[in-house]
Amino acid sequence: MYIIKQLIILLLLNNSLGLKMQEKFVWNLIDYNWETPAQQQSAIESGNFIPENNIILGIEKWKNKLFITVPRWRLGVASSLNYITLPNEEMSPKFNPYPSWNDNLLSNVVSESTVVSTYRVQADECDRLWVLDNGFENLLEKPTQIIPSSVVIFDLNTDTLIRRYDIPLKQSKSDTFLPNIVVDSSKSNCENTFAYLVDAGSYGIIVYSFKENRSWRIEHNFFHMDPFVGGFKVSDSIFSWRDGIFGIALGHQDHHQRRDVYFHTLIGSKEFLVSNTILQNESYALGTDPVYEEFKIIGDRGVNGHSTTEVFDPSLNVIYFTQISKNGIGCWNINTPLNNNTTPLIDSDPIKLVMPVDIKLDEDGFIWLISNRMPQYVLKQLNYEDYNYRVLSGRASDLIKGTVCDGN
């Protein structure tokens, strides 16, 4: 009976008009693989676990682990950094805290490997998991900074901490908001790795050098929000945000580890480009070098082109990006001009893709996407009798087939 029930649920989940990607997992509410029933009951009674306050936000796949983040936007988030083991036949699997329960408890903030609140993470070619820990609890209601904002790096083969780097206070501002981390690495030279931390609130990029274990801040006008599109609609909710630079995608890498860095703001529809050699040169951040012109505008996605994250597919020369006002994901082939006609939707659904917030591409060419109905979570109240949080996946080459993004 269990198998029949799961098959029926799976059929219902994917019986959606026009939806191409497969819904891999769905949840009404988030729950965890507790060590004991008593641990769960204690967490509920103490207020350390309030199921309604747990929302998924970031995703990453590494081998048989699918990482999913749960930011501590409200009180009662049991664990911020989690994973699901793949393959998984459960449609609503419980989360496993990573690297352990102990490393996700706020009572253990003295531990170097503790993760207080992370939005997005990335696994690199050197089998390291890079976590941007904002360090804040209860961000939406009464923000409390538990620890400094940090870059936390784990060895995925041993599930152990490699390093924790606290971001210097002088590189943050009063409105700093760090929603995304993108890692610029090479398997041939793991030591020479850089991480780009986007500051959507104060319009900057904090560049972290793993080799030097230090960071610097870069600012540019292109990192600012576009005030002409500050108001936008997601589902039936109207937002008026000020978020600047948000999404970053890394282009082809040459043998000197040079590559183009594509980026865009959340409040805006334009796409920009700069060489990683500019970001990685600290003198540009400290001095008056004539670097402004090195930042280029590529094009404009058009009306309602707001996007959170994006990712580059080197095998197909395509960038995939979320389209939060259109309940879907779009694409752009970097060998073509970027405009409204060359950035089509490749999947969309008015129910199952409400607020697509994070997108990743795995080594097998599959797109992984999270949607989480954030407007209802932030502004209203979710219906916990319905599925609110989803993980979807689809082969990228199939999704772009027949579109202007398909170069074949």
Percent in helix:
10-25%
What class would the helix/strand composition place it in?
A: mainly beta
Strand content: 35-45%
Number of helices, counting only DSSP H or I runs of 4 residues or more: 6
Roughly how many Å apart are the termini?
Answer: 45 Å
Average pLDDT taken over every residue: 92
Integer-rounded radius of gyration: 20 Å
The total strand number stands at 28
Query: Which sequence of strands runs across the widest sheet?
Result: 1-28-27-26
Q: What is the overall shape?
A: globular
Which runs of at least 5 residues are low in confidence (pLDDT < 50)? 1-17
Largest sheet: 4 strands, antiparallel
Annotation keywords:
globular, 408 residues, single chain, mainly beta
How would you describe what is shown here?
This protein is mainly beta. The protein has a domain at 31-166. Helices cover 10% and strands 35% of the residues. The chain contains six helices and 28 strands. Strands 1-28-27-26 form a four-stranded antiparallel sheet. Strand 19 and strand 20 (270-275) form a beta hairpin. The chain is globular and about 60 Å long. 45% of the residues are buried.
